[in-house]
Automatic annotation (TrEMBL):
Protein name as it appears in the record: Response regulator transcription factor
Coiled coil: none
Pfam hit, one: GerE
Organism: Streptomyces lanatus
Modified residues (4-aspartylphosphate): 54
PANTHER family: TRANSCRIPTIONAL REGULATORY PROTEIN NARL-RELATED, TWO-COMPONENT RESPONSE REGULATOR
Length: 219
């Protein structure tokens, strides 16, 4: 079972999220918090695999709670859930080690998919947030970022570059495997090597680096 903590200051939102998540037979909501401070305390008190954190909460907001969780409970995979898709929030979530960023208007199935991806060690960025980040990062200092990204990619083999390009397109391990005719497990091995070589904390950071370098530019 994937053990989840849900943190949101609105009880009705928490109830709705709990209903969606517990409809999956492999997910259990083990704790609920009304603010970020309570979320951090509950993670310390419970065994939690994934922490679903709203950004705008009293006492301690979701991004600040995320930063504390990464220090206090590094094994917990934090997912940011919000109605706001601004570039700054997404980038802060990723830079603090968040396992993904999900908008509140996402479909129920996407919420379950994001929790499963986070629990599996992958990162999940909602399609709307992905487009927003990529479009934002495409403007301003693009040439400098591209050159720096290409230098970082010099350590990768041709096959690893191919897999990284597919990450840049937003493909899952399974879809990437189908594209290059290898197993999902083989792709996962390549992704692990890529993250180590590039010193990226998660696949979303690697995907953004690929985009900066001009890889994975398919729509």
């Amino acid at each position: 079972m994937i053990r989840v903590l849900v943190a949101d200051d609105e009880p009705l939102i928490r109830a709705g999220i709990r209903m969606i998540l517990t409809s999956a037979d492999d997910i259990d909501v083990v704790a609920e918090a009304g603010n970020g401070r309570e979320a951090v305390d509950l993670v310390r008190a419970h065994t939690v695999d994934v922490a679903l954190l709203d950004i705008q909460m009293p006492v301690l907001d979701g991004l600040s709670a995320l930063a504390e969780l990464r220090r206090a409970a590094p094994s917990v995979r934090p997912l940011i859930l919000t109605t706001f898709g601004e570039r700054e929030n997404v980038l802060r979530a990723l830079s603090h080690g968040g396992a993904g960023f999900l908008l509140k208007d996402s479909a129920p199935g996407e919420l379950i998919q994001a929790v499963r991806a986070a629990a599996a060690g992958d990162a999940y960025l909602s399609p709307a947030a992905t487009r927003h980040v990529v479009d934002s990062l495409a403007s301003g200092q693009a040439a400098a970022r591209a050159e720096a990204a290409r230098r970082r990619l010099e350590s990768l083999s041709a096959r690893e570059l191919e897999v990284l390009a597919l990450l840049g397109e937003g493909l899952s391990n399974a879809d990437a495997g189908e594209r290059i005719h290898v197993s999902e497990a083989t792709v996962k091995t390549y992704v692990s090597r890529i993250l180590t070589k590039l010193e990226c904390e998660n696949r979303v950071q690697a995907a953004l680096l690929a985009r900066d370098a001009g890889l994975g530019t398919a729509p």
